[in-house]
Design a protein that fits this description.
CATH architecture of the largest domain: Orthogonal Bundle
Number of strands: 0
CATH topology of the largest domain: MetI-like fold
Structural class: mainly alpha
C-alpha cells in the first residue's frame, strides 16, 4: 500500500468519524424540530418517517394555554440571576486562588470540588424548611440562589484557571504606571479574561436552564421551564402526555439554550485560541 492510498484512507476515516459525531448530535435535534410541529395523522402513520403535514397547535398549547411562555421568562430571569451572583462570588475567589499564595490553598480547591459530592435530593427537605423560614419559597431569587450553590464551585475553578493564564507581569506593569491593584484588574486582567468568563457564563446558563429538581421542589406558581414542563407532562391524563406534546416540550426547552450558545459561541472558541474568520 503506497503513501497516497494510506493518506486517502486516513482522510476517509477522519471524515467518517466527524460525520458520525455531527450526525449523533444534529439528527436528534432535527427529529425534535420536525415532530414538534408534526400533525397527529403523520405522527401516528407508521409508513412515514418524515412528516409532511405540520401544525403549530402543540407548541402553541404549551406556550400559551399551559403557561410555558411564563416559565421561559422565569427560567431566563433565574439563569441571569444565577450568572450574576455566581460571578460576583466566584470571580474574586477565582482571582485569589490564581494570583495569591496562602496556606491550605490546595485543600480549599479540593473542598470546593467536594461540595458537589452531596446529592441534591438528600438536601431537599432541609432546603425547603430553610426557604420557608427565610420567605424564599416559591420565589425566583430562591431558585437562583440554589442554582448558584450548584454552579459556584465550577465557576471558581474555571475563573481561577482563566486568571492563571493572564500574565502577572502585565498587572505589575500597570501598577508601576499608577494603577491600583483593583484598577489593574478592571483595565488589564478582566478584558483579557472576558472570552473565558463568557464560556463560564455559558456553562452557568445551561446548568441553570436545564436544572429541574430544585426548581420543582422550591416553586409552585413561579416555576422555571423544566419544572413547568415536568408538571405538565406528569399532570396529563393517565400520567403521560401524548408523544407529540413531548416533542413540542423538547423543542421549547432546546431552542432558547441553543440561541444563547449560538450568540456566545465566538467567546468559547476564542478561549481555546481559535479565531473566527
Amino acid at each position: 500500500m503506497n503513501e497516497k492510498t494510506k493518506f486517502m484512507l486516513k482522510q476517509i476515516a477522519f471524515y467518517t468519524f466527524v460525520f458520525t459525531v455531527v450526525a449523533w448530535i444534529v439528527v436528534p435535534l432535527i427529529v425534535v424540530a420536525l415532530y414538534a410541529f408534526s400533525s397527529k395523522l403523520d405522527y401516528y402513520d407508521p409508513s412515514k418517517i418524515i412528516p409532511f403535514h405540520y401544525t403549530k397547535q402543540w407548541v402553541y398549547t404549551l406556550l400559551f394555554t399551559l403557561r410555558a411562555l411564563d416559565a421561559i421568562k422565569n427560567s431566563i430571569i433565574v439563569a441571569v440571576l444565577t450568572i450574576i451572583i455566581s460571578f460576583a462570588l466566584g470571580i474574586p475567589a477565582g482571582y485569589a486562588i490564581a494570583k495569591f499564595i496562602f496556606p491550605a490553598k490546595d485543600t480549599i480547591k479540593l473542598s470546593i470540588v467536594a461540595l458537589r459530592m452531596f446529592p441534591i435530593p438528600v438536601m431537599a427537605i432541609p432546603l425547603v424548611v430553610l426557604y420557608i423560614r427565610l420567605n424564599l419559597i416559591d420565589t425566583l431569587l430562591g431558585v437562583a440562589l440554589a442554582h448558584t450553590a450548584m454552579a459556584l464551585p465550577f465557576v471558581v475553578l474555571i475563573t481561577s484557571s482563566i486568571f492563571a493564564g493572564v500574565s502577572t507581569e502585565l498587572e505589575e506593569a500597570a501598577m508601576v504606571f499608577g494603577l491600583t491593584r483593583l484598577g489593574a484588574f478592571l483595565r488589564i486582567t478582566l478584558p483579557l479574561a472576558l472570552p473565558g468568563l463568557a464560556a463560564a457564563a455559558m456553562f452557568t446558563f445551561v446548568m441553570s436552564w436545564n436544572e429541574v429538581f430544585v426548581a420543582s421542589v422550591l416553586t409552585l406558581q413561579h416555576r422555571t421551564l423544566p419544572a413547568q414542563i415536568l408538571s405538565i407532562m406528569a399532570g396529563a391524563s393517565g400520567g403521560a402526555a401524548p408523544d407529540y406534546y413531548k416533542f413540542a416540550a423538547a423543542f421549547i426547552m432546546m431552542l432558547p439554550a441553543m440561541l444563547f450558545i449560538f450568540f456566545a459561541r465566538k467567546y468559547l472558541i476564542t478561549m481555546w485560541g481559535i479565531t473566527l474568520k
